[in-house]
Design a protein that fits this description.
By secondary structure, this protein is mainly alpha-helical. The two termini are 25 Å apart. It is elongated and about 50 Å long. It is built from two helices and no strands.
Length: 54
């Protein structure tokens, strides 16, 4: 599995989750929403793949 991100993709994600008001520099709520959204996309894809394999 390739875990490398292009510089552009890295910067895009960093810009999306950045927060000046957070002590850690990211908006935790936005970050969790993005993670959950991606997990739901993966789940839907897995369901389609499993259905196609039957």
């Amino acid at each position: 599995m390739d875990l490398e991100l292009s510089r552009e993709e890295y910067e895009r994600i960093a810009e999306l989750i950045h927060s000046d008001s957070s002590p850690v520099g990211i908006d935790a709520k936005k970050t969790h929403i993005l993670i959950l959204h991606k997990l739901l996309e993966i789940e839907r894809r897995l369901v389609r793949l499993e259905a196609a394999a039957e």
